[in-house]
Write a structure and sequence with these properties.
Elements lengths: L2 H22 L4 H9 L3 H26 L9 H17 L6 H10 L5 H29 L1 H8 L3 H23 L1 H15 L5 H27 L1 H28 L7 H15 L10 H10 L6 H28 L4 H16 L1
Keywords: Antibiotic resistance, Cell membrane, Lipid metabolism, Membrane, Transferase, Transmembrane, Transmembrane helix
Enzyme class: transferase
GO molecular function, one term: phosphatidylglycerol lysyltransferase activity
Length: about 350
C-alpha cells in the first residue's frame, strides 16, 4: 500500500469512529455494556462466517470467469485474496473507484495477463451490477407494501441509487452490443468535457478510455459464446449477495431480536446498498449509518441495542473487509513454490 492509501485508511477509520461516537454520545455506557454482555455470540459468529463465505463465493465467480482449459491450476489464495483487496480499496476510495484497479494489480501479481484480467473484472462487475438490480426489482415486486411503508422518507435516495446502477449497466451492455456506436458516443461526450485540459493530457485520457472499451468488447465476445459460464457466474453472484444481505439478519439475532421477518430484513439491506451507492464518501460512510438507523429503528426498541447493532453490522461488512484486505496485500501468492512443486511432480512421474 502507498502512503496515500495508508493515510486514506486511517482517515476512514477516524471518520467512522467519529460517526459512531456522535450517534452514541447520549447513550448511557452501562446500558451499552449490558446490551453487549447479553449478545448471543453464536449468531454473531454466524454473521462473520456469512461475510467470509460471501468473499469465498466472489472468488469462485472470478475463477469461473477467468479459468480456461490451457491455464495452470490457480490455488485458492490467489483467488480469495482478490475480493479482500477489492473490499479494502472500495472502502477507502470515493464511489468505490479503487476496487477495480486494485483487483487488476492483484491478478497481475499472479502472472495473469493485464488485458485479460481487466476484461474479466469488467465482466464480473457487469454481472454484479446486474444481480444487484435484479434483486432490487424482485424485492419491490415481492415486498412492495413493506417497501412503501419503511422507505417513503428515503425514496429519493433509493431512486438515485437505482439510476446509477441502471446507467452503469446500460453503458457496459452498449459496449457489448453496440460497440462502434458506443466508441463514437464516448468520443463525442469526452471531447467537450476534456476541452479545458492540455491537448496531451486530453488525448491520453481519450485513448485510455477507448482502449478500455476495446478490451472489454474483446472479452465480451468470448463470454457471449460461453453462456453457461456467465449463467454460472450470475447464480454464484446471487449467492454472494445473499450471504452479504444475511449478515444484518444474523446480527439482529445475536442481539436477541427474534420478532423479525427474514424477507423484510433482506429487503431493507438491498435498499441500503442502493442508498449507499450514491454517496461519494468512501464506503458510503455516513449514508450507511443513517440509512441503517432509519430502517431498523422499528425492529430494535432500545437506543443502545440499535447503536450496537449498527456498529456490529458496519464492522463485519466494512471494517472487517478492510483488515482482511491488508492481509491480502501483504500475503502474496507463492507462485515460485507452485512452479517448483509442479516440476518436482513431473520429475517424479518421469522417474
Amino acid at each position: 500500500m502507498s502512503r496515500k492509501n495508508i493515510f486514506a485508511l486511517f482517515v476512514m477509520l477516524g471518520l467512522s469512529a467519529g460517526i459512531f461516537w456522535w450517534e452514541a454520545r447520549k447513550i448511557n455506557f452501562e446500558s451499552m455494556l449490558s446490551t453487549f454482555k447479553s449478545l448471543n455470540f453464536f449468531w454473531l459468529g454466524v454473521a462473520f462466517l456469512s461475510i467470509l463465505l460471501s468473499y469465498a463465493v466472489e472468488a469462485w465467480v472470478l475463477h469461473t470467469l477467468l479459468k480456461k482449459k490451457e491455464d495452470r491450476r490457480f490455488n485458492w489464495w490467489e483467488m480469495y485474496r482478490i475480493p479482500l483487496i477489492q473490499a479494502l480499496f472500495n472502502a477507502i476510495t470515493p464511489f468505490s473507484s479503487g476496487g477495480q484497479p486494485a483487483q487488476l494489480v492483484g491478478l497481475m501479481q499472479s502472472k495473469i495477463d493485464g488485458g485479460r484480467a481487466s476484461s474479466v473484472l469488467l465482466m464480473k462487475f457487469v454481472i454484479y451490477q446486474g444481480m444487484v438490480l435484479i434483486n432490487f426489482v424482485v424485492a419491490m415486486i415481492v415486498s412492495f407494501e413493506n417497501v412503501a411503508k419503511h422507505f417513503s422518507g428515503l425514496s429519493l435516495m433509493i431512486l438515485f441509487g437505482l439510476v446509477i446502477h441502471v446507467v452503469t449497466i446500460s453503458f457496459l451492455l452498449m459496449i457489448m452490443y453496440y460497440y462502434s456506436f458506443t466508441k463514437k458516443m464516448v468520443q463525442a461526450v469526452l471531447k467537450p468535457i476534456l476541452f479545458f485540459l492540455k491537448e496531451e493530457k486530453r488525448e491520453q485520457i481519450l485513448q485510455s478510455s477507448l482502449r478500455g472499451i476495446d478490451s472489454f468488447y474483446k472479452e465480451s465476445l468470448v463470454l457471449k459464446q460461453e453462456k453457461q459460464k456467465v449463467i454460472k457466474a450470475a447464480i454464484l453472484t446471487f449467492l454472494q449477495l445473499l450471504l452479504y444481505y444475511l449478515v444484518v439478519y444474523f446480527v439482529l439475532l445475536s442481539l436477541n431480536v427474534h420478532h423479525i421477518n427474514l424477507l423484510d430484513v433482506v429487503v431493507m439491506q438491498i435498499m441500503i446498498v442502493m442508498i449507499t451507492s450514491i454517496f461519494p464518501v468512501p464506503g458510503g460512510t455516513g449514508g450507511a449509518e443513517v440509512s441503517f438507523k432509519a430502517l431498523f429503528s422499528g425492529f430494535i426498541p432500545s437506543a443502545s441495542g440499535l447503536i450496537l447493532a449498527m456498529f456490529l453490522w458496519r464492522f463485519i461488512t466494512y471494517f472487517f473487509g478492510m483488515f482482511l484486505g491488508v492481509i491480502g496485500i501483504l500475503k502474496k501468492p507463492k507462485l515460485k513454490k507452485i512452479k517448483h512443486d509442479a516440476k518436482a511432480k513431473l520429475w517424479s512421474e518421469n522417474k
